[in-house]
Structures are given as structure tokens and as C-alpha cells.
Design goal:
The chain is 36% helix and 15% strand. By secondary structure, the chain is of the alpha/beta class. It has a single domain, classed as Aldolase class I (TIM Barrel). Bound molecules: indole-3-glycerol phosphate (IGP). GO terms for molecular function: indole-3-glycerol-phosphate synthase activity; phosphoribosylanthranilate isomerase activity. Pfam families: IGPS (PF00218).
Length: 268
Amino acid sequence: MNTRSEELAPAVRSILEAASERSGGDERVSVDARSLSEAFAAAEADGRVPVIAEVKPTSPTTDGARDDDPVALAASMVEGGAAALSVLTEPEHFDGSVENLTRVREAVDVPVLRKDFIVREDQLDAAEADLVLLIARFVGDDLADLVEAARDRGFQPLVEVHTREELAAALAAGAELIGVNNRDLGRLEVDLSTFESVAPEVPDRVTVIAESGITTPADARRMREAGADGLLIGSAIMDSEGEDASGTGGDVSANTRRFTAAESEEEV
Ligand SMILES: O=P(O)(O)OC[C@@H](O)[C@@H](O)c1c[nH]c2ccccc12
């Protein structure tokens, strides 16, 4: 593994240590995946911004945790127009679980991404999902093998990058779905100009998703103008803070709608 661990934030180092020790599934999974590109096309046809809404109970950069039922959260996200969902399965730092993912996927009919720190092939077998995240920086030279291993099982691999170098590695590994993470895993800081500088290098045939730090509808429009086919949004949708008298700040469905409706006339 080529993780350049000396450049990683301590929280991320601890996440990776835990990930390398986590066991995978006993049996190889075989999934019949729901297509992300079809889900994005359906959202576009309907005038919705294609949003992957993320069920993330907590994270190293979040204060507090949300302990609502993940299935109820997922249903609200779909009601708010989310084209797809992302479910954290990392247990130690994000309060996620494979069980949450499985229950959510059974309850909705949109594609579901498994969000975790996969570093070995057997870890792909821990759960069925439509998409799996592979983080270029953490898998290093194993990227092409993991992309292939994921496809062999029926998953659509989403390869996460943060720099142009990682983008080049993702393309060389045959990635067709690429997420540009605006969060730097070294300092854990978010900068939306990351997407703006990396996205122009992505070939048209590749689907590109802007990840992290999208907190307002204006941010969503900014990422779309920079070429995002879809947006991955967690905290701003999960947020129960900022609840106003009408309670809308904590309403996951309304929070989702703010982003899916960011390009429509009646945007609020
Ligand atoms: O909560 P945000 O800033 O909207 O970010 C969502 C998502 O991009 C973020 O959770 C994320 C991006 N890449 C990851 C890798 C692992 C865990 C989490 C992530």
C-alpha cells in the first residue's frame, strides 16, 4: 500500500489502520447492480440535479452524531429527490455498518453506494451494494486489480481522487465513474476549487461526481458549472443543526430537495 501515511491527518491514519485489520466476507458476492448512469439520466430528465445523498451518522469532522434509523433517513432522501444513496459502512469512525447498508438497499429502489475504506479484495465481499468506493490514494498500485475485482462481482466501482495525478491513475485503471473529493485527506480541509481544477481533465465518456463540502444550493450550482454530472452530499443533508421554527433545518427530505431543486425555477 502506498498511502504516504506521514502526510495524512491522524484521524485518517487511524481509519486506515482499522481498515487494514477488518476482515472481509466469507463468500464472494455477486450483485445485480442498479445502474447509476440510468438513475442520473432519470433525474436530469425530471429536472432534478443528480444527487447521491449520504447516510453518515458521524465523521471525524462532524460534531455529535445522528442516531436516526438509517432506513427512515434513506426514505426521506429519496422523497427529497435523491437519484442515489451512499451509506457509510465504516464502524469505528463513522458509526456505519454493513447492516445499515443492507437494510437501506432493501428498502429503496435507487442505486446504493457502499462508502468504506476498502484496501483488499476480500473486503468487497462484506456486503452487496450497487456501487463501491475505491480511494485511489489508499489503494495505490492495487487500483486496477480492485476495479476489476469489483466489476467481476457486478459492482460499479466509483474511484475517488483528489489530484490530477490520482485522476491519471484512475483513468489508467479503467475507471468509468470518478469522484473528485474536495476534502484533502492530509489536512481534512475542504476546498471546492479542487473539483474545478481536476474536473476539466476528465474525459467526456467518464461520469464525474463532485464530493464533499457542498453546503448550499449555490455550491451545488458551482460544481455543476464546473462539469459535475452528479453531487455527493452528506453533512448538509444529515444536518440537524440550524433547525428553524418550522423545523426545516433538521428535515432530511427538505434538506435533500434544496439540492435536487438547485437548478429549477422554484428553487427556495
Ligand atoms: O459530508 P460532506 O462534506 O457532504 O461529504 C460527503 C462525502 O463526500 C464524504 O463523506 C466522503 C468523501 N469521501 C469519503 C471517503 C470516506 C468517507 C467519507 C467520504
